[in-house]
Structure formats: C-alpha cells, structure tokens
C-alpha cells in the first residue's frame, strides 16, 4: 500500500488513488440503490472529516469506532453529494477500533470545489458550505 495521506490533503478527482486511515464516527441507515445497498457514514482523522459512502457488504462490515484503512479510494460526487468511497478498484478494511485522534471540522464534503483555473483536471476549494457535517450534526 502507498503511504497514507491525511484527509485534509484529499481533493475531488475522477480516479482511484487515495490511501488514508480514519475512524468511523457515525453511520446512517442503509438505503437500497438499484441492486446495491448503500450507507453514508461520517469518518475523520486528526486533520479533517468527510462523508464516506459504504457499498453492499461494507454497510454491515463497519461500525462506529472502527478504524478503517482505505486503499485506492476515490473522492468524487455520487449523485449530488461529494463523498469518499472505495470505488470499483479500492478496498476498505478494518485495522483497529476506538483508538484514533480525530477532528470533526473541517468536513471536506461540506466544501464547494471548483476546477483549478490553472489546471482544469484539478479542483480547488471555493467556499465552505458548512463548518461541520449537515447530515451528521455535532452533538452538543
């Protein structure tokens, strides 16, 4: 596996290449999408948080507190939501539980991204839609 990056360093892209470790903080109920089950989750590391889309068996494989290693993941739009996911060639695996430092802000899924004017194949942050997840609001 390639050296993991930190969540704060990921940007939207249409190719699988993100290697990162994070903790699963919250998980929504599974939903049926065609023949596949999906489940949206909130994950974080010590630098940022992001929405993570679980597919099929991944919905049952991971629970709150699980530390997950994502290999060859993708950070892109699924319908209208910007999510991190395994994609077709990526792999998510549990590597531990409960012992990981994390922050819930910024949430990279809550940032508006735009094509880089200097390189249309890359994206840059344009604006912050919300400082935290609007799907999984922070507990007060």
Automatic annotation (TrEMBL):
<dbReference type="GO" id="GO:0070876">
    <property type="term" value="C:SOSS complex"/>
</dbReference>
<dbReference type="GO" id="GO:0000724">
    <property type="term" value="P:double-strand break repair via homologous recombination"/>
</dbReference>
<dbReference type="GO" id="GO:0044818">
    <property type="term" value="P:mitotic G2/M transition checkpoint"/>
</dbReference>
<protein>
    <recommendedName>
        <fullName>SOSS complex subunit B homolog</fullName>
    </recommendedName>
</protein>
<dbReference type="InterPro" id="IPR012340">
    <property type="entry name" value="NA-bd_OB-fold"/>
</dbReference>
<keyword id="KW-0238">DNA-binding</keyword>
<dbReference type="GO" id="GO:0005694">
    <property type="term" value="C:chromosome"/>
</dbReference>
<dbReference type="GO" id="GO:0003677">
    <property type="term" value="F:DNA binding"/>
</dbReference>
<dbReference type="InterPro" id="IPR051231">
    <property type="entry name" value="SOSS-B"/>
</dbReference>
<dbReference type="GO" id="GO:0010212">
    <property type="term" value="P:response to ionizing radiation"/>
</dbReference>
